[in-house]
Amino acid sequence: MSTEHLKTIEQRLLWLSHWMIHHANHVRPKVDGIKIGGHQASSASMVSIMTALYFSVLRPEDRVAVKPHASPIFHAIQYLMGNQTREKMENFRGYGGVQSYPSRTKDIDDVDFSTGSVGLGVAITSFASLVQDYIAAKSWSGDKPLGRMIALVGDAELDEGNVYEALQEGWKNDLRNCWWIIDYNRQSLDGIVREGLFDRVEKIFDAFGWQVVRVKYGVLQRAAFAEPGGDKLRQWIDDCSNQDYSALTFMGGAVWRKRLMDDLGDQGDVTALIDRRSDDELADLMENLGGNCTETMAEAFAAIDHDKPTCFLAYTIKGWGTPIAGHKDNHGGLMNKTQMAEWQKHMGVAEGEEWEPFATVPDVGALKAFLDQVPFFAKGTRRFSDDKIAVPAIELASDRDISTQMAFGKVLDDLSKGDSKLAERIVTTSPDVTGTTNLGPWVNRRKLFARKAMADAFIEHRIPSTAKWEFTPEGQHIELGIAEMNLFLLLGAAGLSHSLFGERLIPIGTVYDPFVCRGLDALNYACYQDARFMIVGTPSGVTLSPEGGAHQSIGTPLIGMSQDGLAAFEPAFADELAVIMEWAFDYLQRDGEGDPDERTWLRDETGGSVYLRLSTNPIEQPVKRADDAFRQGAIDGAYWLRKPGPNCEVVIAYQGVVAPEAIKAAGELAGNRRDVGVLAVTSADRLNAGWTAAQRARSRGNAAARSHIEQLLGDLPGHCKLITVIDGHPATLAWLGGVAGHQTIPLGVEHFGQTGTIGDLYHHFGIDAASIIEKVNGLTPGRRV
Questions:
Q1: In this predicted model, what pLDDT tens digit does every residue of 59-103 receive, in sequence order?
Q2: Tell me, what DSSP letter sits at residue 291?
Q3: 701 Cα distance to chain centroid
Q4: CA separation (Å) from 614 to 448, 471, 485, 537?
Q5: Which residue from 9, 131, 27, 5 is spatially nearest to 73, judged by alpha carbons?
């Protein structure tokens, strides 16, 4: 390790990151007249940490989640290494430019984990380590070096509750190979961190089995402490409040001198220690905290010789090395033009060389030779891929009443009995609802994962139980505690396994549908990274009647429609579910590009994740259906269960478990209304996406573009009325009337539920057959039923 080269790199990164932000805010023409931003101060506090990390200790197999506000440092690193372009740097926070926060899908450089919503990038590293261990334990994984999953953490991120949920889950799963490096600059957007907070935080890490490494003093400070009087200076630093330290940093060396002399007085040795330094040297000394010293950070990283989870508490100055260092307002503040001009002189960067990666470097050749040998970058980009897994045919016919949740469990149970590669690569997980979401048979056959085998005491003592839960390294289910954020973070990590580790997994998570909302931020985060997984929300709706309003989901169908990167389905019948799951297992693995499929105007070739909203209500199943129109319709989002005639007066369009109510109502209406149709909607999400995409295509000149739902509704007479019904928010299907201009009466659930029978609640919310008929009688012309 060359401390001289590290210092040079640190200063280059400090300049390039801050110039990129300055250029975006003060040089590039402003279009909207608003501040662009960029977090100069938060970047500055991380520059020494990231220099030491990336250029002295990281290996190609390591993966890093960069704190959102240190994004400019990350991109400066990639620019220095030739992995980022000047064009995109100049367009920082602009359209097509370097993104505000590291993004796997939007940035061109080597982002391991997207970050942005604070706390999530921290926690996903622990779940990525768990996924790495899961893969390493399998016979098919091959012999690959284990990497460290590293989070660069802003100290304010420790206010996020999901961080502590992840700590507990990590402890339960014997977490290893995970580093969290905390930028302890003690300043956040609204103020200064409370005194003594980290003493409490350290105890939490210690309780969950982490090693805590406190990196408080840089090499200058440690050298000064060894001088006569140094012990008194050290004690003063330890006793100084966060607010005072920040304020003194901003005011500079002369004020440091006065304050130290006032507090320490004329004490001979310590006075001489202070007097031996100029004001600038004294400021450098007092601001040389451990996290702002590349040599100290590199030593701290290199000292770790084990795989135990490790938390580095790196004391830093927010805005270190810049004119805004320590200022209370520097989180959102930026250097103005005058400050930047003076700082440019201080940094020695000539006008016209602001973007030059190696400006100010005295020996460019030597530095380039050093960079060529940095291990982390030695193998180039570290994005992997894996072959697609063939999906066997999934057939699931039933001659008895069955719920979609039961059918889901049956599909997985059937797969668990076989030896397909798909079954081998499926990993399931659930936040303490494994048995009640019908994963039990799968887990009984495929077992639970743990790095060390653990027997089931109930089996050993021959106590009867339906749950035969044995933990083994070969197990294919990861059991979680009741924390839905952890569920989606694990699905996100497992859903990136092909890219992070070169081995494809097919992650499937189950959760009670109303509690999708409890993990919504992490779900969005996983989708934003283009992680691939299947999430099954079950049971759903007021159909879960005995559980009451707290367990009855209402808005989740709208979440499914609005969440990018997630194809949402709500099948009513087992055969629909089988068709959708077979398609979904392939869809999870797609990564193509190109124009939408002109049959549906959906961009299915790009792939994505899948959300299944299921139910525990067993309903009568239709006769066996094998026609292509049904199969394709179930995938595309809808098909005619009862095709309307040419003079159709009423169409009932339903989604999900209310199918029997819609079918019953249609049967009773048929005697009084002409050519009644029943539209089985399996995915309002896909129907709506195809419809809006087809409209865009028509607006751009393709007059023939017609979506699937436009083709289904296009032949209905103009006087036909649509009745839509769902055990969920009625807005899910209300938009259908806009497709071809038909009057629409949307039925669904808009208010909290309560306990009761299914019949009670369906009638209360007006989604039973009688209510459908009532709406037809009261709101449409024609003979009353």
A1: 999 999 999 999 999 999 999 999 999 999 999 999 999 999 999
A2: G
A3: 37
A4: 24, 28, 20, 6
A5: 9
For the chain, the straight-line distance linking the first and the last C-alpha, in angstroms and rounded, comes to 86
Report the relative pairing of strands 506-511 and 426-431 from DSSP bridges: parallel
Task: Count Cα atoms within 13 angstroms, Cβ side, for 715.
Answer: 11
Among 69, 75, 77, 105, residue whose Cα is nearest residue 87: 75
Structural contact between residues 712 and 720, judged by C-beta atoms closer than 8 angstroms: no
| Phi, psi for 601 (deg, rounded to 5) | 65, 25
CA distances from 712 to 254, 540, 733 (A): 78, 27, 15
- With beta carbons less than 8 A apart as the criterion, state whether 700 and 721 touch: no
Between CA 226 and CA 228 the distance in angstroms is 7
Q: Quick one: tokens of 476?
A: 């294919």
| 29 burial type by CB count under 10 A (0-12 exposed, 13-18 middle, 19+ buried) | exposed
597-619 in b/e form (b: 16+ CB < 10 A) is: eeebbbbbeebbbbbbbbbbbbb
| Tens digits of residue pLDDT in 342-361 | 999 999 999 999 999 999 99
Q: Which helix (H) or strand (E) holds 503?
A: none
CB 487 within 8 A of CB 169: no
Q: Which helix (H) or strand (E) holds 180?
A: strand 178-184
Instruction: Decide if 17 contacts 73 (C-beta within 8 A).
Output: yes
Give the closest residue to 243 by CA, choosing from 287, 187, 199, 284: 187
Interatomic CA distance for residues 246 and 325, integer angstroms: 8
* One-letter amino acid for residue 487 of the chain: L
Alpha helix stretches (DSSP H) within 240-363: 242-251, 253-264, 269-275, 279-286, 294-302, 337-347
Nearest alpha-carbon partner for 114 in 493, 380, 427, 486: 493
Coil vs helix vs strand at 621: coil
